[in-house]
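Input/output pair, single chain:
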Amino acid sequence: MKGQEWYQADDVAEEYDDKRFSQGGELIDQREKEAVLEAIAPLEDKDVLEIACGTGRFTVMLAARGANVVGLDISAAMLQRGRQKAQHVDVSGNLDFLRGDAGRLPFPDDHFDTVVAMRFFHLADDPEGFLREMRRVSRDQIVFDTFNRFSSRSIYNWALPMGSRLYSKSEVSVLLAKTELKLEAVEDDFIVPYGFYRSVPNVFASPIRRLDSLVGTLPITDHLSSVSYWNTSVR
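Output:
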């Protein structure tokens, strides 16, 4: 995993949500949660694994909606933040946090209905191996996102503390074929880069987001979108 030492630092975990999902970053948080919920609903009694769960943004949300969730992450500091969030929500009995490596998942085959990995695929050293591990422990569905090669993300990617691996649609399609996953749906979004939204107050970011969403509905702009949300099933 790229940037592993940086990611596990206590100060990074403490500031993670505020730096990425405050101000206009709230719009990113809302859209990502919407993408996950749309992909895996209904949630009641569904067994879900979230890989690289971080501070529990999705883990706690899914558990609060009735899923049985395990959140796995390599960072003890991130997991602690997730546990703190869970204390404020009624998720007793259907949420566990576990420290572990995404490349060697500590679960038997076909253990979960759904496996989710958001904000991680771009850091995977071995994307095919990572997908194979996800597929191994899932009996039904895998949901993940990628940052796109031909988007504005490529402009500032070099400045990020751990960089990102960017993918074209064809590259992801090849990975899905190699790992025998069936594409059910893919959505593209955010022509305006994430960094912009995080740097301005929501009152200014919101109208830009509305324009971004409108332009993003045009077929010609698909390849310019920063991120793609992939919903796949086990064949």
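Residues 4-234 form a domain with the Rossmann fold fold (CATH 3.40.50.150). The chain has ten helices and seven strands.
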